[in-house]
Amino acid sequence: MPKKLNLLALLFILLLALAPLAWTADRINHVFVTNFHNPQQITGAVDVGNIIPHGELVRRTDLIVSPAQRHETTQFTDAGIIETDGFTFLVLSLEGQVKGRPFEGGSIGVILLPDEEPVVRAFQEEGQLHLTLEAAVSVAAYQAAYFSDSKSSLPIAFPRYRVLLYNSTDKTASVNLYAYLTN
């Protein structure tokens, strides 16, 4: 009899332990905030007003990129600044059309140069590209005029980047750049 009683007592304790899970599954639970002395004091109501975005798509479309080799930094096409603050990774995608069939194959690329004073100075004074994020599309000679490619999951290290494009084919290209920023 004592073994049976111990088994019933154990079953009763198990049911009591699991009961709160069943009782709270379909009702609203209350949340309590505990303020610790030093780390960060919270006072007043805590409210999340907007949904915090997980990602953002930045577009630069219909960019006309003249022929310029990757090493001809003074001939790059400037496409402005991309703000990356608050994001940790990005995907760079290039898509577009070469205006006419190229006689010489090459690549069409984007370079994101950190918008930091020493990095920009090295680029402007010496044509040096430091700490860049890059993507490029190969374009074959005498092939179809349309191109596209993506470079996935590049780590973001700076809050702002200058967008520079080059085109090592012998024809002008219309380029669409998509930068998907994510966390």
Report the radius of gyration as a whole number of Å: 28 Å
Spans where pLDDT lies below 50 across 5 or more residues: none
Give the DSSP E fraction (strand runs of 2 or more residues).
Answer: 35-45%
Q: Structural class per helix/strand content?
A: alpha+beta
- The CATH architecture name of the domain at 55-182 reads Sandwich
Helix amount, in percent?
10-25%
Tell me the span between the first and last alpha carbons: 61 Å
CATH hierarchy class name of the domain at 55-182: Mainly Beta
Average residue-wise pLDDT: 86
Question: Which descriptors apply to this entry?
Answer:
183 residues; alpha+beta; Jelly Rolls; 4-stranded antiparallel sheet; 2 helices; 8 strands; 18% helix
Question: Please, could you describe this protein's structure?
Answer:
The protein has 183 residues and is an alpha+beta fold. A four-stranded antiparallel sheet has the order 1-8-3-6, with no helix packed on it. The chain has a four-stranded antiparallel sheet with strand order 2-7-4-5, with no helix packed on it. It has a domain of 128 residues: Sandwich (Jelly Rolls). It has two helices and eight strands. Helix content is 18%, strand content 39%. The longest helix is centred in the N-terminal third of the chain and has 23 residues. The mean pLDDT is 86.
